[in-house]
Amino acid sequence: MSYDDVEIEDMEWNDEIQAFTYPCPCGDLFQITKAELKIGEDIARCPSCSLYITVVYNPEDFQEDQPPQTQNLGLAKGASAVKVA
Amino acid sequence: MDIGKCRVREVWSWGAGTHGQLACGTLIDALTPQRVEALSDAALIVDIACGGAHGIAVFECGDVATWGRGQAGALGHGDETTITVPRFISSLQGIRISHAAAGWNHSAFVTDNGALYTCGDGTFGQLGHGHTESRLVPGRVEHLSSERINMVACGMRHTLALAVTQGSVCTSIVYAFGFNKRGQLGIQMKTNGSESKNKWCFSCPQRVDSLDMHGVVSVSANGDHSAALTRMGDLFLWGRGYNDGPDSQQPHLSHSGLKLIQVSLGWRHGLALAENKVVFAWGNNVCGQLGISRVSNNSERRAQEVNVAHKSIEQYTREREGKDGAAEKSQRQISGVDFQKVETQGMRVSWISAGSEHSAAVLEDGRIMMWGWAEHGQLGLGSLEDQEVPHMVTLASTRLSSGFFSATHDQHASANYVKTKVYCGSGYTFVVS
Ligand SMILES: [Zn+2]
Fold it and tell me: Do A26 and B21 touch (CB under 8 A)?
């Protein structure tokens, strides 16, 4: 079961591991790469435990190569955000 | 330092350890309690704070040591280095710290004369310095320099500070800063008015004015949750909703029906200790973090719930008769909060702590019970299996006498004796005994 649903705008871009991250309750980070988002993946996993989160984002925002700033994703309002099943 | 025979204490840690957060010089998890040599038999510890993956120890002399993940400067040593053994924060030497709090990647320190210092991740304004930069060494929160701060609490991306004015009438003010998307600051405004990604971030301390007249005596925070406890033993909750309930942008009175004396929040659950030494829990129970058996004692628990509900009505009536606005206050009862009695096998509890997804209680005789999420060994039971009811943890103490006898002896020997306390971080646990 997904630990949580997290909007992409609430995740932080981590240059070191080249992934969007969000805190995991184990102390490590849930992670998802732009390449994964591009193919419609919506599960961000933690490398240290069994937990994962569902990332809420607009897949169209990742179809073109874009800079990794989340504010460019146009997800200010929930209406444009869709959950990829 | 001569600590004297009666003041010897021991510090233990277990659980997630891959960022050095167990302070034992290692980068591995520990499934059973291990003695933290660097903090045992040392100077008196008056407070410990455990965050996402870093820890803080406050010593009686006012010094502070930190360890664990150094990302964004959370340890306050001037860099982002992760360290596996406690190191004193040199920039705070000469400043007497009496209390500390640890968030996901930020730290807060209160001095004995009421100043607040913060360091670490400031991305969401959670350091309170009026910007969203991170700080590698602690800096004083100047916006609160005219207040006497006596307590601070750190959530994942926000901070609560309690200012107390001593006078003929004891008044208190709660300040909040950082991320507010889930209402965790408890303030009127949800956004700061900008249209950017930063619109949820308040980097200057905001007054939680709806709590002004309630006599708040303690604040707590974790994840996106916030709480305040009043002198009367009433509990206010705000921030992210529990059990998928709606978020609460304003503090809401949550009736337990009993006078509460301590509160500790996890990422999806909360614990409260009542004056009668019984522990209540609410929120998500997927990992067993509420400590209530799902199969046994259903009738007993129902009876307890009825009892609580009954007392709530009594209290409600008392308040309605007592002062105007109480009825409205009661209607604002936060949804998704259903207080349930933790099954401590009938034993009285003196202290509680909630980790992200696990829970701990210290019994009056000094023994420790743990329950909830165990994937990293954070229950200290030598197992990775979640526990839905409290289990006793064994500390292999090197002391000749232990537990209650020792505590009694020490209380006579030193007024400074700290009773056994447990502190839960995200996926790990510390004990000072
Ligand atoms: Zn994890």
Answer: no
> Which residues does residue B163 pair with via DSSP β-bridges, in sequence order?
B149, B173
Measure CB to CB from residue B427 to each of A10, A25, A70 and give the nearest one: A25
Average pLDDT in chain B:
87
Q: Could you give the ipTM of this predicted complex?
A: 0.87
Residues of A in contact with B356 (CB under 8 A): 25-26
d(CA A34, CA A40): 10
d(C-alpha B153, C-alpha B139), whole Å: 17
* Residues B88-124: tens digit of each pLDDT: 999 999 999 999 999 999 999 999 999 999 999 999 9
Residue ranges of domains in chain A? 5-62
Higher pLDDT, B406 or A58: A58
Contact B227, B237 (CB under 8 A): yes
The full DSSP string for B34-46 is EE-TTTTTSSPEE
pTM beyond 0.95: the answer is no
Selecting from B16, B69, B286 the residue whose C-beta is nearest the C-beta of A26 gives: B16
- CATH code linked to domain A5-62: 3.10.660.10
Res. A25: pLDDT tops 60: yes
Q: Which two tokens stand for residue B276?
A: 């009668």
Q: Which residues pair with B272 in a beta bridge?
A: B263, B280
DSSP string, B115-166: -EEEEE--TTSTT-SSS---EEEEEE-GGGTTS-EEEEEE-SSEEEEEEEE-
For residue B348, give both structure tokens.
Answer: 């009285």
Residue A11 pLDDT more than 90?
yes
